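One thing: could you explain this record?
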Amino acid sequence: MVDPLQACLGAINQILLGKQVQVRLALACLLADGHLLIEDLPGMGKTTLSHTLAKVLGLEFQRIQFTSDLLPGDILGTSVFDKDSGRFVFHPGPIFAELVLADEINRATPKSQSALLEAMEEGQVTIEGATRPLPQPFFVIATQNPTTQGGTFPLPESQLDRFLMRLSLGYPAHAAERALLMGEARRDLLPRLAPVLDHGQLAAAQARAKGVKVSEAVVDYVLRLVEATRTQPQFGSALSPRGSLALLAAARAWALLDARDYVIPEDIQAVLPAVASHRLRERAETAGQGGGALVQWLLREVPVL
């Protein structure tokens, strides 16, 4: 019998060709009950990956196109006066879905970006003084264009930190792009994709991920990585306790996808770039390294044992 999680990976990889590592990281992110940020050039498959994840996990999907004139009410919803009842009736916005695609999130103003903060952190939104719970499960997948492109507003650190992982898909390999050109359009394949997990199976998989064992030796390795970001001179910003918890949660989900009930150092190393690169900043005098280079330094210089 095929493991349901492996079936999920297989189904997604049939749609998104040649991106096995990124697909696995994305699924691990959702199994760890986190939110995902995908940064890449237009046309790389960011939206396709989001649609595919929603389909295979059987999740209600909503897409929000972020633009410079988007208002918080367009995301959260608003109350409209109903003349028949003589009272205001709340009309929920697209945030009230199980998987929300915040497309090109950095094209909206910081005010509109901040409408997602409470939702991503607490699974609820406060609108007009009333707190309203969001569906469970609740995932945000945000895409953003490179900040070098015009018309973008950089995400503040507080917003970035809400994302468990940040991925980049990149250009496909030659063989994958050839298969893409020779095959059916991905948009035509998506409607035929059947859910692989139901809500109960997804919740059970998330519970299994939380139960994956982590030894003291692995925890010590994580602590050495985190401590290096706080003490080494090239790091301008360090991993917070939220970052270290995110690293362990992602490693547990990665181990589960390997059908293991324990974490090994290689799991930490596999997820570290996606978990840490958007949380790290270099000092001004060492500018130019970027979060990715700092992560590579950690992997190279921090001892496992």
Notes: Residues 211-301 form a domain with the Helicase, Ruva Protein; domain 3 fold (CATH 1.10.8.80). Residues 241-257 form the longest helix (17 residues).
